[in-house]
Amino acid sequence: MKRILRGVAYAVLPGELVLFVCLLAGVRVSAPVLAAAEALVVAVVLAEVWLFVRLRRRGLTSRQAVAELVPEPVLRLLGHELRVLASLGRWVARRRHGVGAADLAFGHAKAQAALLYGFTFVCVVETVGLHVLLAGLPLVQKAFLVVDVYTVVLILGLHAAAVTRPHVVRADGGLRVRAGAHVDLSLPAGRIESVRYDLRLNPGQREDGVLELAVASQTSVTVRLTAPVEAVSLLGKRRPVTTVRFHADDARALVTAYRAATLTRAGTEPSPPPGLPASA
Description:
Elements: H1 2-24, H2 31-57, H3 62-69, H4 72-93, E1 104-106, H5 110-133, H6 138-164, E2 167-169, E3 175-179, E4 183-187, E5 192-201, E6 210-213, E7 218-232, E8 238-246, H7 251-268
Parallel strand pairs: 6-8
Antiparallel strand pairs: 1-2, 2-3, 3-4, 5-7, 7-8
Helix pairs in contact: 1-2, 2-3, 4-6, 5-6
């Protein structure tokens, strides 16, 4: 039942989008076709609600029930978009995400700031131009205005996510490596073999066991692990990695801070018990 409903939803939603575009373009659609399309959408929504209630009655939580009904890539894309929008509020409030009182944060947004601000400027110019050109089609004009303004907000949100979600050197010697709102990878202290400054320009060649988080076509820190950790892509694809390469605005300071945290952690660990004397 779940697969059938998902297949129907995959067919209905694109059809609804096509119908909406036709109405915006001024194409005349007969009343029976409109009524049938809307009735089909309502039926799909009611069926989804019914399945959700059944799953909840079986003991699943709300999150688990939604995960059963909605494909993981869709959920992850929606979650990413919500994190991007939430980052705008954090940016305005000058609050960072996931940085503890004893942690050290290192940004990675400066290298891409000029590019994103340039995209924002181009989108604003396009919004104004389209608004003037579509003055004779008020309904289409309003629809494009909403889309264009939302695009500008998302681009600013991508930059805000990079600013408010920095890399983190934890007090326990671990690392939290991030790329905006779409990658958040925790590297436990016990699995880190080495952290070093390693500037690489124009990365991109896929290597087994290597995760590259380039910013402005560069990475500047390489972390090697003693055991693999699981990296999850934006759409949910999982793979083990033993090497992580990422960019930081002040990569040398990050490496220095990590080594200092490691030394501090080693100094606070209890000393091993002394061995027996050689004459024993």
